[in-house]
Amino acid sequence: MPHFEAGAFVQFVQRKHVKVPRIEPPTPDATSARARLRIPQEDGRACDLCGGREFSLLHEWPVGDRWNPATIPIAVWKCACGLAFLHPVPQPEQLPAKGEWWSQARKQTRRRGGFKEKWRVIRHAITGTGKERLLRDTRKAVPSGRFLDIGCGGGRMLRVAAQSYDVTGLEPSPVAAAMTREKGFKVVEETLEETTLPRGSFDVVMLDSVIEHVVSPRAALQKTHELLAPGGVVVLLTPKFEGPSSRRHGADWNGFRHGYHTHLFTGKTLGRYLEEAGFEVLRKPRRDRMFDDILILWGRKRTPRVE
Ligand SMILES: [Zn+2]
Known about the structure:
single chain, alpha/beta, Rossmann fold, seven-stranded mixed sheet, four-stranded antiparallel sheet, 11 strands
């Protein structure tokens, strides 16, 4: 009879019945549970849009709140200029471990069944998908040319845009970048902030659900301005702060993506950002109506003035 040591046997059983570890959110420790909310002014923070420091506290989510995924208290503040922003912004280690952000699981958990899904299918059959409509409007501003999609993910936007433009994707996730390259698209594995793409090399730059994630929208728009050729157009799509859904849901509004969205915009604040970064905000196309929950602005790079 083979001789087993107790320890070896336990290890054998453990190997046989190996459990896939569940990814648990980080446990708030006693210190962080009592932690005081950090105040932007005390942290030396100035408004990214106007440079001011006159902020009011809009919503606060303590540690353990059902909307707060972080191990620190988080809050959204509103500047006197109207810009809403997250402070403090949790560090990655203060948020649940997600590993590689791009996964099939993420894709599959989106939009499951129900009336909303059925309505979406009907609507798409009539007016096209959201991306198709976005591109149709963009073609009114720039009918053809070189197109860059920031954060191209699995390449859904590139696939639609390729019907009209010469497309490139920018995607920091190696998994998503590889997946999209396999589909035959050109993908540069960089972030917008650190990209080495040459200046003036695009006619359209798309930021679909990107601007609400960046550390500084001002810096992101300046970089976008550099990437565009004269007369080129930036497309910005983002949740609409103070839209109908934002007003109805208050602190529960999913546009906050609590702990993740760093800035929230109205048509006015996003328009001001575009103007100050050197863009002319187009009146047509433009989606900033009273009943819109998604804000979409198109901005054309101004031709440098001859003094
Ligand atoms: Zn401000």
